[in-house]
Specification:
The longest helix is centred in the N-terminal third of the chain and has 18 residues. This protein has 7 helices and 10 strands. It is globular and about 50 Å long. It is about 40% helix and about 20% strand.
Length: about 220
């Protein structure tokens, strides 16, 4: 729903869970320069927003993946929300690491699903899709059936969409990159001239650097 998407984007901007800096980029964990940085964990400190996100994730899952039998969270950003959603739905829960822990049983999956369990993965963000795909493969290797992925925010990169399509995994999100920029303009967080930088980054995030565009 566009109304929910724009409302969530607005709320994220207002609490600075998303920071936009087209002229002073951030370095992401994957090494990309980016004109924005997101920290969705901040939403956990705001009870009304936390409840809003939980309720909307549940709604999204029931609308598109009503036969869900288990919820898996992507570590670490989605652990809290995926646990809340699983509790609301009354289904088994686990979270999945993107690499084994370095002690004990070296688990990738923290929790337990029965073989054949129909699982929905919850992630906070979808960027290049690598984390979500690793989690999906881990669950499939454990005998689960991954029926979908839901996220709070999807950046909508073509490479990620292609990878999900190749595996036949349906992805749904509460908000996306375009709706986020619309709200940022509406709030005056960015100005129309800044859109050039954000579009150029979105088209080629791996090689983009600040100053690639001319906002004069």
């Amino acid at each position: 729903m566009d109304k929910v998407a724009h409302l969530l984007a607005s709320k994220l901007l207002k609490i600075s869970a998303i920071n936009l800096q087209p002229d002073n980029s951030f370095i992401w964990a994957n090494g990309w320069n980016a004109p924005m940085y997101t920290d969705m964990r901040k939403t956990l400190s705001y009870p009304p927003l936390r409840t809003f996100i939980k309720v909307e994730l549940v709604r999204l899952i029931m609308e598109h993946f009503g036969d869900v039998e288990g919820i898996a969270g992507v570590a670490t950003g989605a652990i809290a929300y995926s646990a809340m959603v699983a509790d609301e739905l009354g289904v088994p829960y686990a979270y999945v690491r993107t690499k084994p822990k370095d002690h004990g049983l070296e688990n990738l999956i923290e929790g337990n699903f029965k073989p054949g369990c129909k699982v929905v993965i919850i992630n906070d963000l979808i960027t290049n899709g690598s984390r979500s795909l690793r989690v999906a493969r881990t669950l499939a290797d454990a005998g689960c059936e991954v029926i979908g992925i839901v996220a709070m925010l999807d950046f909508g990169f073509n490479d990620a969409a292609d990878r999900f399509e190749e595996l036949g995994i349906s992805v749904k999100s509460l908000s996306n990159y375009t709706q986020l920029l619309d709200e940022a303009l509406a709030q005056g967080v960015i100005v129309p001239a800044d859109i050039v930088a954000f579009r150029e980054w979105h088209d080629d995030p791996e090689s983009w650097t600040p100053g690639d565009n001319d906002n004069e």
